[in-house]
Amino acid sequence: MRKVLADCSASISELKRNPTALLAESDGAPIAILNHNKPAAYLVPAETYEWIMEMIDDQELSQIVEKRRHDKHKAVSVNLDDL
């Protein structure tokens, strides 16, 4: 059995009937869309999805910073007045 990773759930039939109401009812939380009582998809409001994407982007940037921090010995010194 697959674990449902959301506090809210709805059937595909409920989703077809009124997706906007489901989103409003969830108050920004993800909704597990169930097909035969198994998660088929997760529905999240646009704001929540945008926040998730920003967090992923921040994580990727953090990994780049850490990698470059270890390569600090390869850095080139630059005087801002010379730019």
Automatic annotation (TrEMBL):
Xref: SUPFAM superfamilies: YefM-like
InterPro entries, per the entry: Antitoxin_Phd/YefM (IPR006442), phD/YefM_antitoxin (IPR051405), YefM-like_sf (IPR036165)
Taxonomic superkingdom: Bacteria
Family: Belongs to the phD/YefM antitoxin family.
Matching NCBIfam families: phd_fam (TIGR01552)
Function: Antitoxin component of a type II toxin-antitoxin (TA) system.
The protein, known as: Antitoxin
Protein species of origin: Marinobacter pelagius
